[in-house]
Design brief:
The chain contains 6 helices and 61 strands. With 1064 residues, the protein is mostly beta strands.
């Protein structure tokens, strides 16, 4: 017995020694090290000091686990460790700062898991808690899955005691995000009778809650709280023993929550009440809610006592009044009636111009009746236009689903369109039976079609099994012309699923359509697809598409390019968290394209695939370049050989390239300019995020060169390109033969481009076609057509370009022959809608031939730009000719040489034209007549007078000069009426035909009562002679004779009730 006592005391001493050791600073440090090894997750710290008795100081504390990450920059704790022996945690002082909590927990609850009711029990404290002083600053909490984010500036606790016999203290919170709020709770009493006051404030606004309770229940009151410009009143009662129960009433008036958050609405009026208990699988309750918001009303009324009897209605004419992130209108209502687990649910929905977060719909309508007991027929109808989600865009949608009682027959029709799938239509019929929450039957009928997929139909009835635990389909076999495909699919309640398919396809257009709607892959293809996944994504993928003897075609604007190939092989598979995609194309001869991409860290989800690391490798040798015509439509007959070896790293949204790409032996035609570029070579060399390239081509006998770099930086394309050449033939058409020496630089920054440098044009022949005889529509003709939609280019072009004309720029057009020389500085800045120019173009050695009469262009004539639009320069042009003027009868002077001409000032849009003579002794009418006919206006025939008047109109003389010219002609000829007027012609019956037409008119009084008038059509060749005999100021007799058969001849008696508007 003595040995036992000695052994006991030895173990006791050893235990005390061990405890004493761990109570020392070194022992405390070793205990933390021991805990690091065995606790779940990873615990690290930069520095720790103290003993378990305190104080304890920790710097740089970090803890990471599967559920959450926790870090604290500093922590300090003073407490009374021996108080644990008395069942109390007694903290004297606790300080912590810069706390970061990352919650990674995910909701793994399946649809089949039942919500267990909370257990009713009295309040019980296993340990008492005493905190004399505590302060935690700068707390950041973020939940990964639901994006919840909190930022708390400070939490403080003062004189807090929570024991069986006492409850008191103060707790305060200063919240920064999501809302800037301050909260305080004052506690007093004990577990059997406690009181509390809670206040939540923001600046001058304050919400005050007063309550009391015991071990069984609690009561909270909000009496006449004035808040955010309104009022809130309510009472809440919560009972948790012997069963869970509640009763609450809340009334709100004019509560402007926008003062708390601009995204929140104004609650104009709200009345909410509910009461109930929760003892079984589902709570029993009644509720009533009537909430009025701007342009919105929400009504919910009903109850659940073993059965549902609930109605609701939501009407909003403007969702933007609820939240700025939503727009449109919605009208929805519904009812839930019947047993708890198998009610009948009825819904109706109407919406227009909806935008709710990432979801939108121009129009949506729906109604449904769903009996979860399946004892009555079920139906669903849904229609929508322009529906968009983060993953799907539907141009239109129409869904109709109907099922008989016990789902013995289910019919479904669905049609929709997406940017890549046009007019997809599916019709199906299911036959089977529902038994003990399981449906077993077959797909009796199935057809589906789209523009890309063609028309498919089921080959034979397909088995289908549906229960809460699993779904099984197949094998489902469908045919379409020469294509057939079979698939099997399964799913279980753990969200494990699989899909297997194989078959032969007539073409791969449904895949190539994702690249371009004009691209087609015409080749018989055998494919195999196997996919296994869970709710987190694809776990295993194996796909293989193999085509032989086919072609890739690109068709657009009634033209097509067809590139045959001997073999096409596309495969994709997953392997150790990698997605591997390989594409091989063998066009024949020596051409090939071989591409492999490996996406690392692939989790089976395609949502964020563009951010995952990627490795790629492509080798190609390609000589069939006709397809490039459709990407660069102004070229023709491209030839050459493209070879390359390119590697890609980085990610899809931030790629890095390495390798080279070369075009050799290239030629290309540019039909618009009658050019053919030969010896075309392009070399690209990629490294990291930058591509360096050089290019050269021969046009005529000279070579044009270009070199530059491009790179991606922060998702933007940055390029710098230099182009240089000497005497390059840039246009070789019959109208324009132009040589240029460019030395320009093009910089591209994302969607902004800057063009700078200079272009010298040493020689050119400008001889555009003469369209002077072409019949065009008059200026006053208005063409009515569909209103064009303004197209806004995403590119911003900035220009700072100098254009110099050499000594050999010849212009020969519309009778004008001469030379141009000068310089223009063309600029366009970010705040200018169009480019402007500054500079002058001088005209030299120039003459103008008008109707066989040659006019000399004055040497000092020029076109000038002073920061003007390119199509509206300033004009300073003089054109003249020398004429011989014979002396008038009775004068001693002989013939004299006189210069007559026109002077053009102003701008192209608003020219100012005047006529001059040297010496200045001729009238405006005579100058114009000498310019046209080499004789004065008095000696001109009627047809010449007509041409003179047309010239007066077309020269756009000032109003004063125009009236003066016409008046001078009238005085010279001694006539009463002269001019160009609008004339309406009538047939033999007096019926007008055609439209008002321009006509030359000349008239003269033979006597005070007899007036003759001649009318000649300028557009339509019609001559009309009129004679009027004027009886008095109101009555006249008129005869009219036309020279064409469709113009009537006759006599009229005219009477005017007002002052006549005739020359007579």
């Amino acid at each position: 017995m003595r040995w036992f006592n000695r052994l006991f005391f030895a173990f006791l001493i050893l235990f005390v020694a061990i405890v004493a050791f761990f109570l020392t600073p070194y022992g405390f440090h070793q205990s933390i090290t021991f805990a690091q090894r065995y606790i779940p997750g990873t615990l690290t710290y930069k520095k720790i000091s103290g003993t378990p008795f305190g104080p304890i100081n920790i710097v740089g504390l970090n803890y990471k686990s599967k559920e959450f990450d926790f870090s604290a920059e500093n922590a300090h704790l003073e407490w009374q460790l021996p108080m644990l022996l008395l069942g109390k945690i007694d903290i004297i002082d606790f300080q912590a700062s810069n706390i970061h909590i990352l919650d990674k927990n995910q909701d793994d609850t399946t649809d089949n898991e039942k919500i267990a009711p909370p257990k009713a029990k009295k309040l019980h404290l296993p340990l008492g808690l005493i905190i004399k002083n505590a302060s935690i600053r700068n707390i950041v909490y973020h939940h990964v899955q639901d994006k919840t984010h909190f930022n708390i500036h400070r939490i403080f606790v003062r004189r807090f005691k929570l024991t069986t016999h006492k409850i008191n203290g103060v707790i305060g919170v200063n919240l920064k995000k999501p809302y800037l709020l301050n909260g305080n709770i004052l506690l007093d009493g004990n577990l059997s009778n406690y009181h509390f006051i809670c206040t939540v404030s923001k600046k001058a606004e304050k919400l005050r809650l007063v309550g009391h309770g015991d071990k069984r229940n609690a009561y909270i009151s909000l009496n006449n709280n004035k808040l955010f410009g309104g009022s809130i009143h309510g009472n809440f009662w919560l009972h948790w023993f012997p069963k869970i129960g509640w009763n609450s009433i809340l009334k709100i008036s004019q509560l402007n929550l926008k003062q708390l958050d601009p995204e929140l609405p104004l609650i104009q009026k709200a009345s909410i009440s509910t009461d109930g208990t929760w003892e079984h699988d589902a709570p029993d309750f009644s509720m009533s809610a009537d909430i009025t918001l701007p342009s919105t009303q929400i009504i919910v009324q009903g109850k659940h006592f073993h059965e549902w009897n609930l109605q609701w209605h939501v009407l909003s004419n403007d969702l933007s009044q609820l939240t700025k992130k939503s727009t449109g209108s919605i009208n929805a209502s519904g009812t839930i009636l019947g047993p708890t687990l198998a009610p009948i649910i009825q819904l109706t929905l109407q919406g227009k111009n909806l935008n709710i977060g990432p979801y939108s719909a121009e129009q949506i309508e729906g109604k449904s009746t769903l009996d979860l007991s399946w004892r009555t027929p079920t139906h669903l109808e849904l229609k929508g236009i322009e529906i968009k989600t983060p993953d799907v865009k539907l141009d239109h949608l129409a869904l109709r689903l109907s099922g008989s009682s016990e789902l013995k027959q289910v019919d479904a029709q669905i049609t929709f369109s997406t940017p890549h799938t046009k007019d997809f239509t599916l019709n199906t019929q299911l036959l089977g039976a529902l038994n003990s929450a399981m449906w077993q039957g077959k797909i009796n009928q199935l057809t589906f079609s789209s523009k890309e997929l063609g028309a498919w139909h089921v080959k034979s009835p397909t088995p289908l099994f549906i229960s809460q635990q699993k779904i099984q389909l197949g094998p489902l076999c469908v045919n379409s012309n020469a294509s057939h495909s079979c698939l099997k699919a399964s799913w279980d309640d753990k969200n494990n699923w699989s899909l297997n398919a194989n078959g032969n396809l007539e073409n791969l257009n449904f895949l190539s359509n994702f690249i371009s709607e004009y691209l087609r892959t015409n080749a018989p293809t055998h494919y195999h697809l196997s996919v296994v996944g869970t709710k987190t994504g694809i776990q295993q993928l194996n796909a293989d598409f193999h085509s032989q003897s086919g072609s890739i075609s690109y068709q657009r604007d009634f033209e097509s390019v067809n590139i045959p190939f001997q073999e096409l092989h596309l495969s994709a598979k997953t392997e150790e968290k990698k997605l591997i995609v390989n594409l091989k194309i063998n066009p024949g001869q020596k051409d090939f394209v071989n591409t492999t991409f490996i996406i690392d860290r692939f989790t089976g989800r395609f949502v964020y695939i563009d951010t995952l690391p990627i490795r790629g490798d492509m080798q190609l040798h390609f000589s069939k370049l006709k397809i490039f015509k459709f990407f660069i439509p102004y070229i023709d007959e491209p030839t050459g050989i493209i070879e390359g070896n390119i590697k890609m790293t980085g990610s899809l949204n931030n790629p890095s390239w390495q390798g080279n790409l070369r075009l050799t032996k290239g030629t290309v035609a540019i039909p618009q300019f009658k050019l053919k570029l030969e010896n075309l070579t392009i070399a690209l060399q990629a490294k990291n995020h930058q591509v360096n390239y050089t290019a050269s081509a021969k046009s005529g006998v000279q070579t044009l060169t270009a070199q530059g770099t491009s790179r991606f930086q922060e998702g933007k394309l940055l390029s710098d390109i230099n182009i240089h050449g000497e005497n390059i033939l840039v246009s070789n058409t019959p109208e324009y033969t132009i040589y240029a020496s460019p030395d320009i630089n093009l910089k591209i920054i994302d969607h902004s481009s800057v063009l700078s440098g200079s272009i010298l044009i040493p020689n050119a022949l400008i001889k555009p076609a003469d369209f002077s005889s072409t019949l065009t529509l008059p200026d006053d003709v208005i063409i009515l057509s569909q209103k064009e939609t303004a197209q806004t280019s995403p590119w911003a072009w900035l220009v700072n370009l100098k254009i110099s004309l050499g000594n050999d720029i010849v212009i020969d057009t519309h009778g004008l022959k001469g030379k141009l020389k000068g310089e223009l500085q063309i600029t366009r800045t970010a705040d200018q809608p169009n480019a402007v120019a500054t500079g002058q173009l001088h005209i030299s050695d120039a003459a103008f031939d008008a109707r066989g009469k040659q006019l000399t262009i004055a040497p000092n004539s020029y076109i000038a730009y002073t920061h003007d639009s390119l199509n509206n320069p300033h004009l300073n042009i003089q054109a003249y000719r020398s004429v011989t003027i014979l002396a008038q009868a009775g004068t001693p002077l002989g013939p004299t040489e006189t210069k007559v001409g026109i002077d053009i000032k102003g701008t192209v849009r608003h020219p100012i034209v005047t006529m001059f003579s040297t010496p200045a002794n001729l009238s405006q009418a005579d100058i114009l007549s000498y310019l046209l006919f080499n004789q004065p206006a008095g000696g001109s025939s009627s047809s010449q007078i007509s041409l003179i008047l047309q010239a007066v109109k077309s020269l756009r003389l000032s109003r004063k000069s125009e009236d003066s010219s016409i008046s001078q002609i009238q005085q010279t000829l001694g006539i009463t009426e002269l001019g160009v007027q609008q004339q309406l012609y009538v047939d033999a019956l007096g019926t007008p035909f055609g439209i008002n037409q321009s006509a030359f008119v000349i008239g003269k009084y033979l006597t005070p009562n007899i007036y003759i008038r001649y009318n000649h059509g300028l557009v339509r060749a019609v001559d009309i002679y009129e004679i009027r005999y004027i009886i008095n100021k109101n009555w006249a007799i008129q005869t009219e004779i036309g020279t064409t058969g469709d113009v009537g001849n006759g006599m009229d008696i005219l009477y005017n009730i007002s002052r006549p508007n005739f020359p007579w």
